[in-house]
Amino acid sequence: EIWNMMNNKYSEFLPSVQNREDLVAEVERLSVDIDLLRAAIENEVQQDLKVAVTEFTELKQQLERDSVVLSVLKKLQEFDTAMKECSAALLEEKYTAAARRLEEARSSLRNVESHGGFELRIPRALRKELTVQEQNAIYQLGKEWQKLVVWKLPKGSSSLEAVVLSELHLHTVPPPGEDTAVPPVAAVLQALAVLGELHYKLKDFGQLLMEYILKPLISYPSLEPVTEEQPDVFILRFRSQELALDESSPMKVFDKIKLIFEVLHKYLLNVPLEEPGKGGKDSRVTLAELLGELLWEELSNCLIHSCLVHSVPNSSSQLEQYKEVIESTKEFEKALKEMQFLKQDKTALLQYACNVNFHFANKKCQDLIKAARKLMTSEIHNTVKITPDSSTALPELPSPASGDHPKTHRPCSLLDSGTVNLGSESSLSQSTLSLPACRISCSVQQLMELAYNTMEEAKTSTKFCCLQLCSCVQDIFYVFCEVVPKYHRENLQKLPQLAAIHYNNCMYIAHHLLTLGHQFRCLALSDCGGAFVDAVPDFKKLGMECFGAQIQMQKRGVLDRLWTARNFSNMDDDENYRAANKSIKQVLHQLKGLGTVWQDVLPVHVYCKAMGTLLNTALAEIVTRITALEDISAEGADRLYSLCKVMVDEGPQVFTPLLEEDKNKRYQEEVPVFVQKWVTFKELMIILRANLQEIVDRWADGKGPLAEQFSAAEVKSLIRALFQNTERRAAALAKIK
Questions:
Q1: What's the rounded mean pLDDT across residues 623-640?
Q2: What pTM was computed for the model?
């Protein structure tokens, strides 16, 4: 059984083995065939394939070259066709078609020139031919433009006389009965647009239009446009009307300008054009739009600066009337937009007109500063007398319980009189809060009137104008501090009277600034009153510095004159005495001169203080010189006494603050009040005439009148100089301690 099983298994397995051996033999044969085929491909087919690829590449390159050549030839043919059609169109005066053919020729030539690798000479020749034809077309179009738009201008500038002789002729009126679907003007303009020349033509036309039509109509109110339409031409000329106002109203100017654009729109500007390089409806623009882009900025600036700026009101009461100008400006811009001259987003004129409050405030402030500066640079010596009886320039003030709204229904005047009512049962006299009697410059009084009137106007103005006007008044006073000292510097230094008037001017302004802000507190400006009060110290300092510098200069003059007195030494020498006497006379002459030029100018207390300061300088210098002497003879003492007596007798006479002589005696008697060294000087005179005992008695152990004016060392020095060295002198010196 086992053997049978093995035979059976072997019988089944043997065919499978045989089949597998047959397959192996078949695979070996196929492998040999593959090797033979691979060898054949490598040796024969690949070589043929390389040859085929090379041939294909060469054929492809050849095809590309042939395609380029064919394309170039086609473009050359198109160029030639376009050039021929352009020439034919020009002969037939079909300018739009001619221009389009030129554009096509230019495009074809650019295509030819864009192909590299061809060394063709023909493009250069074609470029030259195209340029010649293009210039020929532009020349013909230029002649046509000159036929359509004819300017007849006189030689010279665009003055009124020249403008009146100027004329603009538009030969764009279509003949009656002729088809106007495409008028000649449209063909010419479209051709110029296609060739890129329209911009230059419009620019030249716009410059002439501005110079000889638009600007003159704005600048010369007497100029009126005159239109005339004939069968084949429209004529625009001008005439000048006599008795015209210097400045024309914006409404009239707008009407004139609108008339010009209406006739231009009718006969020239209402031409739709296609912009080169664009397609569709969006590419169509009118000539008015193109001209507007060129002119509007310049035209609007001219209208603003030569017309609207002059119409800005000069007072706040005229602001209400300005609404007519705003409405007229709005209508003017609307008309220009309807004619497509102006784009919808352009509103420069209307914005300027609507901003009238700003322009009014600026104009008002400029006028105020200009007027104030003119007053500041006017002559200082033209004066007006200010007395306690003069106006205090205070409007009626409210009672403390009535709030912050004073009842001022009339302009403030510097000529009002009466008492200042404070709303209580009692009232202050008119002299209260008033400046002492003095003289101020008329220009400064007018300057304060200007300030008060401006503040009054601010009360009835808009909030913005009110702020600007109040700030302008503050600026006026700041400008005063800068301009007046510099502009009048030389005169203020040289002329004592002008220095005194300037001092009064500054005190006068400071006096008003103290209450100016309070008087107008109804303006509800938080910093207005404070700003005016803050300026008070500046004005007082300005006045005192100027007058103080003048006093110092006069002091130097006094000391220079006393320098020639030769220290008051050796007065027994006639020459020395004459020199000292001359110097005393010169000092008195100087003081009398100052007293005269300051008379009725300075306030009395300032006058007396100034003259007292100068006289005190002279007396102090004389006292110092005499007390410094080491030897004084008896004759010298007498002569020194006589010199001092001249000062004592004539010194008070320089105090003449008032014009009435009898009223000056009071101040001459009060000289010791204003001259600090007056008593000291008189004590010195007593010493010059006294004996030793009298000197000792006046010293009175350091308690007498002499001790109040001189120190012990000074008295001893005088005793040694006046008296010889004796026992009596030694005894007297011993008592001076």
A1: 93
A2: 0.67
